[in-house]
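User: Before I run my own analysis I want an independent prediction to cross-check against. Here's the chain; please return only the structure tokens and, at the end, one sentence I can use as a sanity check.
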Amino acid sequence: MPRATCTFPGAVGGDPPCVSRERGKATGPARLRFDGWIAGTGTSSGTRIVLGHWERSPFGPFSDVMLDRADGERLLLAPTPETADFIARTYTFDAVRIVPVRVSVGAGTWTVRAGALDMRFTTGRRGPLGLLLRAVPGALARRPAWSALLDVPARLLLAGVRTRGSAGGGRREWYGARDLRPIVAVSAVFEGDDLGVMAPVEPPVRFGFGSVPRRPGVTRVTTTVALGRGRAPFRSRA
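Assistant: Structure tokens:
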């Protein structure tokens, strides 16, 4: 069988399909995999925060933060031009900032520093859904077919949550959850303003086809992205 190769996803000018080394023919869009954690919380100020903490990805380990602010601005904080470009092609933002994003985790407490954002949150014990997801084998969670199978149950159990859907630039995404812990306390300051205490993620965030759960929590997830050919424009500011 011919082997397929794909240009690095940060390439400028859209995402090329995989190409057969033997014949140089397109074999279909590449699928990229991200393994890590997604944390989502609301705050009493109205700003909703989504953290992606990726232990394994095509870009190596990295973290990013998405803010859906009370005034309606959707802001991405990403650590490099390559990660910012990839995320901005996949989701929708009003602005992007390339800033250092540092995350540390210890004894159930997460500390996040991303440019003008300082955030700390604490997780609690797993509930029944978390225990059930923890039993899902990693190999199964990585299969898009498994994520597609769980899409309807996820919508019924967790309002706003989708496990598959269309993303920017003709891309497709699948989320395979493997664990879930509730967030029990949050403190966050952005640009010197205290964002208040933890609150539900309400209204849902508006970055893509789905939201994080309404109840603040941290989900271990395998995300698969099938690349398309489009490019979602964004503006970067330091």
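Sanity check: Confidence is low (pLDDT under 50) at residues 1-27, 230-238.
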